[in-house]
Write a structure and sequence with these properties.
It is a single chain. By secondary structure, the chain is mostly beta strands. The chain is 0% helix and 28% strand. A hairpin with a 3-residue loop joins strand 3 and strand 4. The chain is globular and about 45 Å long. The two termini are 28 Å apart.
Length: 101
C-alpha cells in the first residue's frame, strides 16, 4: 500500500522496490483511492516500455519474429493481438478497452 504523502510533487517520486527472490510482480495502490493503482514486473530482457500519459509506447530494436501483444487493465480485463515483426519495419497498433456500464 502506498499511503497518503502530502509531499508528492507534480513530477512524482522515485523509490526502490525490493522483491523477494523469485518474485517478479508487485502492485501499488493508494490507501485513499483504490482506483489509483499500478503494477510492476521484473523482466530479464531489454524489450519493454512504459506508456506515456496518453497510453502510447514504443519498443525499439525488437528482433524479427511472431509475437502476441497482451495488454491488461485491472477492471476491464485483457486484450490480445498477434503481430509479425520484420527487419527494419515500424508497426503501429491501436488497442482499446470497451467501457463497462
Amino acid at each position: 500500500m502506498v499511503f497518503y504523502r502530502p509531499s508528492l510533487e507534480a513530477s512524482g517520486t522515485t523509490e526502490t522496490v525490493q522483491l523477494v527472490k523469485g518474485r517478479k510482480v508487485f502492485s501499488m495502490q493508494c490507501s485513499m483511492h483504490p482506483y489509483m493503482q499500478s503494477w510492476g514486473y521484473a523482466i530479464d530482457h531489454p524489450y519493454f516500455s512504459v506508456t506515456d500519459a496518453a497510453g502510447s509506447f514504443s519498443i525499439d530494436d525488437l528482433p524479427p519474429g511472431k509475437y502476441r501483444l497482451k495488454v491488461w487493465h485491472p477492471i476491464l480485463g485483457t486484450r490480445e493481438q498477434a503481430l509479425t515483426v520484420t527487419a527494419n519495419e515500424t508497426i503501429s497498433l491501436n488497442l482499446w478497452f470497451e467501457a463497462k456500464d
